UniProtKB/TrEMBL annotation:
Record key words, sorted: Membrane, Transmembrane, Transmembrane helix
Organism of origin: Chromobacterium indicum
Compartment annotation: Membrane
Protein name from the UniProt record: MAPEG family protein
Membrane-spanning ranges: 80-98, 105-127
Main location, first listed in the record: membrane
InterPro entries: MAPEG-like_dom_sf (IPR023352), Membr-assoc_MAPEG (IPR001129)
Length: 128
């Protein structure tokens, strides 16, 4: 299976990883999870925010890969864009947790550019 398809699983699992970072090692209230999360501070709070951002990025990435796949963008190009997206999103979460705001924003932008590339390539706006 091409990496681009595996990257969909990775993109879907990333929010769960950041949620795990937020919850690890502290007492978690499963009766009031959102209330509990609102009380987080420091790196745990930032991990929760990384989780939220990862969920927000997921649908657009899924749509971009689907469009590229349906429009028969060459698999090698999709794999390259998927690798850029995956690395950018992992970096985004790590930089969020580490409180490196400017670098985090750069990682976010790189991930967005990978998504835009897939859409533009699928739409024939970029032709190689």
């Amino acid at each position: 299976m091409p990496f681009v398809l595996w990257s969909l699983l990775l993109a879907a699992v990333l929010p769960l990883i950041w949620a795990g970072v937020a919850k690890a090692g502290v007492r978690y209230d499963n009766h009031r999870p959102r209330e509990w999360a609102a009380q987080l501070a420091g790196y745990r709070q930032r991990a929760n925010w990384a989780q939220q951002n990862a969920w927000e990025a997921l649908p657009t990435y899924l749509a971009a890969v689907t469009a590229a796949w349906l429009m028969k963008v060459p698999v090698a190009e999709m794999n390259a864009a998927a690798a850029v997206f995956a690395l950018a999103r992992v970096a985004h979460g790590l930089l969020y947790v580490a409180d490196k705001a400017a670098l985090r924003s750069l990682a976010w932008l790189i991930g967005l550019l990978a998504v835009l590339y897939l859409f533009l390539r699928a739409g024939g706006v970029i032709a190689l």
